[in-house]
Amino acid sequence: MTKRVVRNEPISISDTYPVFFDAVQRGSLEELVKAAWKVFGLPVMLIDKNDQPICQFPDQILGDATWDRYYNKNPLEAEERELSRVKVLADKPSFFEPFTFYLDENHGGGLFGQIHFKAVHYGYFCVQLFNHPLDKDDLERAKIFSQALGLVMHHQSSCDTESSSSLLLELLSEDTGEYVRSRAAAALGKQLKGRYAVLVKPIEPNASSSTFAVAAMKHIQSLGPNFVAAVRSNCLMVLCGEMQRSIERDRRQMMERIDDFLRPAGNGAGCSAVFDDLFHVQRYALQAHMTALHSKNALAFYEEIAPAPLFQLAAHHGDGEAFLAPILRVIHDYDRENRTEYFQTLRAYSLFLHNKELAAQKLCIHRNTLLYRLNRIEEIFGLPYEEPRTALHLLNSFQLWDVMKKE
After folding, report:
1. Is the pTM above the cut of 0.85?
2. pLDDT band at residue 344, thresholds of 50, 70 and 90?
3. I want to staple 370 with a disulfide (CB 3.0 to 4.6 A). Which of 215, 265, 329, 360 is the partner?
């Protein structure tokens, strides 16, 4: 049952400005929310754009279901929020732009507002009215409160952007020592929630692309506290933390949203597998980078194209030709001289793990034709392709061959 909340006498508009100005100078969101409680004479809640609680005042349980859930760090799920929004707006859309006011027979009411600064959305505030009517000056007070919040949150975001990017760069650098890496991982872990994934977008090494990357980095980090971006080695690196449900469920939507924004910089981006320890972010950034290089025309996810990024790594950092089975070049040249198709036959047979039916379907030939060609390969080249080690070497060689785009 909701406790009876008595509204204190709200502060006049003329006195509202100096109260909020004093709180802005302190640079603390908690101080601003306390100031709002004094200005409105009612409880005030502040949440970020991902619906995660930032602070509330008074700092106590009030017996209201919504207030207490946020106080206990257990906000509404996405589906619940949508149902609540529909209920609030149904049949009585009383909008006072940019604020929303509603009355509810069970929970009284609330005055809501979005927090913006220079077109960047930072979160929401709510003045819990309970059963009290809307005062004639409450909208003007809300306007001043929103502006003060935007100033402070923008300043904090700017500081956090620089700091978070620096921490990410420390984790990505090969020269970072173990102690510094551990400290950076711990600091980033306080900002990012849950499990993690990395998106890497290769950027062309020119002035316009570099300018775009820096602007994109700032935009991405303005999406919320669970995004950290940095530019390194002609790549835009985006580290993502867990969102509202779980990283496994939200990752594709998050990454596609970021990739759509980055499309002007060119096609191709890679996303790592999900991981738990930020200390190892460097290896997952490499995983995402190799995934991006392997799939240049779209956003690719490591586990969906693995193990191809492994062979992309070999081709990218060394002479891939040195690791091919020597017989591949011999068969390839023989086909070109004799107009045969033994190379593609052996390739399909290897990549389909010696499944004769699937290999024949891939080649659009009869199973008997496949068997004839395989026998001829063994006869002409003396190749024991069924021997386990040889079969594994051939499989790896064909995957590396494809990555090197020999065909």
Report:
1. no
2. very high
3. 360
